[in-house]
Amino acid sequence: MNDKKTTRPPFLSALCILTFIGSTIGFIAYFLASIFFERTSKLIIKYSSWHSVDAISPLYFTVLMVLFAFSLTGAIRIWKFHKDGFYLDILSQLLILFLPAIWIDWNAFSATNAIITGIFVVGYGLNWEYLK
Predict the structure, then answer these.
(1) What are the CA-CA distances from residue 39 to residues 20, 43, 66 (Å)?
(2) Model confidence over 58-101: pLDDT tens digits?
(3) What's the whole-number mean pLDDT along residues 21-36?
(4) How many Å apart are CA 77 and CA 74, to the nearest integer?
(5) Is residue 4 part of a domain?
(6) How far from chain centre, in Å, is Cα 38?
(7) Count of domains in the chain?
(8) Exposure pattern of 44-79 as b/e (b: 16+ CB <10 Å)?
(9) What is the C-alpha R_g of the chain?
(10) Which range marks the domain in which residue 72 is found?
(11) With contact defined as beta carbons under 8 Å apart, do 72 and 24 qualify?
(12) Which among 68, 75, 64, 69 is positioned nearest to 18, based on CA atoms?
């Protein structure tokens, strides 16, 4: 049984593995940021142009952590050829993209993150036929 439904294309494998890595790192980073919020706040003020972190809270980092967990779950579902994983991952990534802009300010929107998200959406879309 070597048909296209049971053989994962290398491009789809690469996308999933990159999503596994990125979502795991994002989950851990935001988990730590939410637990060590005071230390994270000091680092944000020290290494960014922000003078105050009044716009964010541990809840902000917790929400991002949950979104990265959903993205990881979506990638696992895609790895298993399930279409619902595509929807879960894309929705999570779009929320991750727009949450800072909505929560903080539109200046927090990341064009780089938007480009990377777009590349993954297109990449997963090109592999749609392999998902059931």
Answers:
(1) 27, 6, 21
(2) 999 999 999 999 999 999 999 999 999 999 999 999 999 999 99
(3) 97
(4) 5
(5) no
(6) 24
(7) 1
(8) eeeeeeeeebeebeeebbbbbbebbbbbbbbbbbbb
(9) 17
(10) 10-130
(11) yes
(12) 75
DSSP-based three-state secondary structure for 55: coil
Taking residue 104's Cβ as centre, other Cβ atoms within 10 Å add up to: 15
- Using alpha carbons, list the distances in angstroms from residue 122 to 66, 90, 128: 23, 10, 10
Give CA–CA dist 89/92, Å, rounded. Answer: 5
Within-domain flag for 1: no
In a domain, 2, yes or no: no
> Do 72 and 16 form a contact (C-beta atoms < 8 A)?
no
List, in sequence order, the alpha helices (H) in the chain: 10-35, 37-47, 58-79, 83-103, 111-126
- Assess if residue 36 is contained within a domain: yes
DSSP 9: P
116: buried, middle or exposed (CB in 10 Å: 19+, 13-18, 0-12)? middle
